[in-house]
């Protein structure tokens, strides 16, 4: 009996959505980038973007919106 194991060797590159906000602290400006099935968080600094977190998702990001609880 034969089994097939299929994986993707390359991370997604097409950006489907992005948003900015203060996610890690009230003073840090962050950029969240959704790439099909991956969510990436960057810290915005005067020197440029610094990667902070990268998370794989089971599904696709259709829309992102900033939410601040009252």
UniProtKB/TrEMBL annotation:
<dbReference type="InterPro" id="IPR050358">
    <property type="entry name" value="RSE1/DDB1/CFT1"/>
</dbReference>
<dbReference type="Pfam" id="PF10433">
    <property type="entry name" value="Beta-prop_RSE1_1st"/>
</dbReference>
<dbReference type="InterPro" id="IPR018846">
    <property type="entry name" value="Beta-prop_RSE1/DDB1/CPSF1_1st"/>
</dbReference>
<protein>
    <submittedName>
        <fullName>Jg2684 protein</fullName>
    </submittedName>
</protein>
<feature type="domain" description="RSE1/DDB1/CPSF1 first beta-propeller">
    <location>
        <begin position="14"/>
        <end position="69"/>
    </location>
</feature>
<dbReference type="InterPro" id="IPR015943">
    <property type="entry name" value="WD40/YVTN_repeat-like_dom_sf"/>
</dbReference>
